[in-house]
Amino acid sequence: MNGQVINMTINEKQDEIIEDFDLFDDQLDKTQYIIDIGKKLPPMPVQFQTDENLIRGCQSKVWLHSEMRGDTVHFEADSEPTAQISKGLVSLLIRILSNEKAEDIANADLYFIDRIGLSNLVTSRRAGGLASMIQQMKQFSAAQAGKNRTAEQPTL
Amino acid sequence: MQTATHEILDIEAIRRDFPILDQVVNGRQLVYFDNAATTQKPLPVLHALTRYYEGYNANIHRGIHTLAEKATSAFEASRRAIQQFLNAAHVEEIIFTYGTTDGINLVAQTYGRRFLKEGDEIIITTMEHHSNIVPWQMLCEEKGCVLKVIPIDDNGDLILEEYEKLLSERTKFVSAVHVSNAMGTINPVKFLIEKAHAVGAKVLIDGAQASSHIDIDVQALDADFYVFSAHKLYGPTGMGVLYGKRDMLNAMPPWRGGGEMIKEVTFEKTTYNDLPYKFEAGTPNIADVIAVYAALEYIETLGKKKIADYEHSLLEYATEALESIEGLRIIGQSAEKISVVSFVLDGIHHQDTGVILDQQGIAVRTGHHCTQPLMRRFNLTGTTRASFAVYNTKEEIDRLVQGLLRVKKMML
Fold this sequence. Notes:
Oligomer: heterodimer
Number of strands of chain B: 17
Structural class of chain B: alpha/beta
Helix content of chain B: 40-55%
Structural class of chain A: mainly alpha
Largest sheet of chain B: 7 strands, mixed
CATH topology of chain A: Sufe protein. Chain: A
Strand order of the largest sheet of chain B: 4-10-9-8-7-5-6
Number of strands of chain A: 3
């Protein structure tokens, strides 16, 4: 993956990540890849590291900040410094979902999770509450998409 | 001397009794180091379960037919085996429960509610499992009792002088863990009991972690109550034991109402059954109670002392090997420990450690181990815990060390 994700759809980005993971047979190598993605995540402004932004259901501390930028949703995230797998997982989600339209995020089918062959890593009880991260991203997006629809409704 | 005794145990043969161990997990031979959570079950226990269901499954005690007789007799044989295991004075002092937590709740809800009152003090320790904290907090909330906590030092030992300072005529109950699940510390429970009795308090000992590792003699300890779970001593899940002194159990009201615990029921009044049945309402966990007999027999055949000596040699080996890893700190350095090593790695989240060890086929436990107050005492959110049983080997500990070096390499 080269980071040139602009103008790619959510599914194209997922496909690219699946291809990257296909290069590794070993779970440890895949996990290393996730850790390394996390290390590249730009640091999150401290003012976003609030209790409201904490991802519920994560055993380690992960913050997710969501905001609308124009007509797309922008996500930023960080974790407590030691929780590197959680940080990698949230980075992966940001690569796929950030800067996409709210409705697309809310409706996204995140099939990459089953396809990268790391199901033991991505269950909610373990590495990082991936399910909770997705839920929080989708909830924010669904609420925004709902607002858009309300705004678009013609007044009678 | 330890070497001489544990050489008698044929670990390879023992491992063959535990078929679950012989499997590949995530591409590697399984290393099972989560024994403090639950031990694996040897073939005789599995066979006891299938023999029961295949041959004499029946509801016990009131059945007149042959299968019911056979099941009742096997069920009560387990009670006698547990009586011996604990050296209890009377067989009716053995109450079957669903596990340690169930036993503690039973005592809190019956003895506690009947005999404790506002202003009475209950003492626990800093290293209690949540299951020996919450039932007492619930009782305190209801009755207005006060919960006091014995502090620990940096090694993970109780500060006994502080315990003695906490004791007074207001102390009515002490509930303490025999062996810490998170650190492995073996507490001086005989001392705790003596001091508590001196002020007239009663004592419950949580033996969940002790039962498979050290000899328990409830009469020598003079424990008023002793609780443990079968699944941590090579037996099935969902089955536990409450030992209580006969006079105390007789003085306690029943807890759950239902079948078996009654003598006679009319709509006006019910009279309760005698011990131990007074506390065993409903159809009990017959199969698992029967299978416990096989677990105790298995332990006895190997010899508890030999098991303890062998496990101690694993503990010493693991402690030395893990301490050689830079940035690794062992939490719980008591001189008296069972085979549990809890540790943190500098700069690495325990959860990440657990995930990457699992990917190498090594099963450990990570997190707060249901001892959040203890974790807070050490200013931690959790640790990684490796806990050993009789079927573990030094080669497996070497695998753990290699696995941890890999974790460090990936993270740092």
